[in-house]
Amino acid sequence: MDHCEITASHIWFNKAVPRWLDIALYKAMQRIVKAVELDDLSPVDDLVKHSSSAVDIRTVLMQIKTFWAQLNWPEVEASYAFISKILDDVCKTTIFYSDKMVERVSRGHNNNAEFTINQELCLAINNIDYVLQYIQPFVNDLGYDTTLSGLEALNGDMVAASCRRTLTTLVQNAVENVENKILEILEDVGEKMAPVIGDFLANCASRVAYTGRDCKDTLLSYLDKNLILLKDKLTERNFERILAVIWECSAQTLENTIYHWIEMKKPPSYFKTLCDVLKVLLKFFYDDKVPQDETLEKMRNLLQLYASDTTDLIGKYYWNRIQQQRSLQADEFTLGSVAVRVQLFKEHIRIEILNARELKPPEVHRGSFQRIGQGRKLRAKSNLNMSRSQRHLDWVKSKFSSLKFQVHEAQVQIHAANTQGQADPYISVRLVPDSRFNDCPKLRTRTIRGTLFPLFDEKFDLVISRASQRIQDSYILITVKDRGMMGQGMFLGEAFIPLQEIQVLIVAVLLSSFFTSRMAPLVFILL
Question: Whole-angstrom Cα distance, residue 68 to residue 309?
Fold first, then answer.
């Protein structure tokens, strides 16, 4: 009996293989629809955290991989084309499954009820992630490295490298698209939890303000109830993901509540409650490992600002002025300097004003004039939420401010023309905050005419009862002014000296503008 050898028989199936892959894709889509519908969204067993549909999809992909391994296509160029189609079909299959899972869990929630996490949602996330984790092993098992090596031998390095990039891009797109579906579910969770958290915050602050009862536990119990279920039902990787989303949702809702209450002009008690809520949330989500986040720090500072009463705000203002003055170099005489000698005794303080140097005469577009312009811009932005009578009153105020600005501007121009680049400086001294030193008078030197380097050499004594109890967070405010034609004082600069830092010393102090952005610090030169 003669034996005949058949060669290149694979060519007979060149058209059949793509057709079979198209049929396999169509059947895979049908199986996905059926698998998702029949999935009861309960774990396959106690050892895993995914349900039956995820197993079905992996089985579909495994069958495609088995078919390709058994086919063992010998021609490298056709093999590359088939592998590209298989990878493209895998991308379509996994994305289609992800869409169906998102659709399945989305139709089970009642939008009118309070949103809570359920087991079905957790399993949907785990299912998509379970299929996602199989993509890279599936690609590796296709053996495309052998095909690319064959292409390199046949067509050269450049062709093989281009083909590798194409396959890599296909895989990356598949992974990114499936991950985006997971993020879509997580973001949907955050969007649905945001109104609930917002209601908790509003009710909590109102209850504290009107009844004095703390209710942060209500918000924590809601979060805790959902997170316990998430921790139990999600894989560790997905739990970390959704924890970050819920924190982002909570922080964003808290920030929106802050700005809403600022517009509503809520009292400090409301913001104190939100400040406590923020601390509790940080402890709840991060324990002692709070991240260094710029937005978080801004939110915390904003809450502390609006939770403060008038006394606290005044104290913070003076503290900030000291920090601004200390932040510049000692040789930066932006607005000049003043030398003083200060002695603090048991019941009184002695202040000797020695001289000032390198003063700058007043300018039209410096100081309070800039501040008036900024105030008009801020009012223009806030007019949208005003009633008609409020807008009318604001218009009257703006016209009065504009008139005041024009009068002040004219006074400065006339004064600058008369003094010819010089000044008539004098210095006023007072202790601040005013509420703490209302028994201490404001002191003032004589006016020195026509100079930017005045020599005062004047000494003042202030009696301060219980000085040791009042010097903490208290300051000497030294203000240099230029005497105008009508006797008004035009601001030239100021400096602060903390009382608790005073000993027997001579101090050289840089003046800093109260209104301009270039604020020089206090520099103490000990003798």
Answer: 74
Nearest to 493 by CA among 359, 363, 317: 359
pLDDT of residue 330: 60
Beta-sheet pairing, 443-444 with 455-463 = unpaired
Tokens matching residue 358: 């390198």
Q: Please tell me the predicted confidence (pLDDT) of residue 217.
A: 67
Q: What whole-number distance in Å separates Cα of residue 127 and Cα of residue 336? A: 70
**Among the listed residues 19, 18, 101, the one whose alpha carbon sits nearest the alpha carbon of residue 57:** 101
Give the residues of the chain that fall short of pLDDT 50.
211-212, 364-382, 384, 504-507, 513-527
Distance between CA 349 and CA 509 in Å, rounded? 18
Handedness of CA 507, 508, 509, 511 (dihedral sign): positive
How far apart are alpha carbons 309 and 312 in whole angstroms? 5
If one counts every other C-beta atom within 10 angstroms of the C-beta of residue 48, the result is: 13
Bridge-based pairing state of the strands 489-498 and 337-344: unpaired
Q: How far is CA 37 from CA 31, 93, 151, 277, 316, in A?
A: 10, 16, 43, 42, 62
DSSP assignment, residue 470? H
CB under 8 Å to 372, separation ≥6 — which residues? 401, 402, 404, 405
What residues contact residue 92 under an 8 Å CB cut-off, 6+ apart? 25
- Confidence (pLDDT) at 445: 92
Closest C-alpha among 503, 320, 431, 492 to residue 524: 503
Positive or negative, the CA dihedral 247, 253, 256, 258 is: negative
CA distances from 108 to 116, 125, 185, 242, 245 (A): 12, 15, 14, 20, 21
For 216-247, letters b (16+ CB in 10 Å) and e give beebbebbeebbebbeebbbeebbebbbebbb
> Are 40 and 107 contacting, i.e. CB atoms less than 8 angstroms apart?
no
Instruction: Give the side-chain half-sphere CA count within 13 A for 315.
Output: 13
Q: What is residue 208's predicted lDDT score, i.e. its pLDDT?
A: 56
Question: How close are the terminal C-alpha atoms of the chain, in Å?
Answer: 122
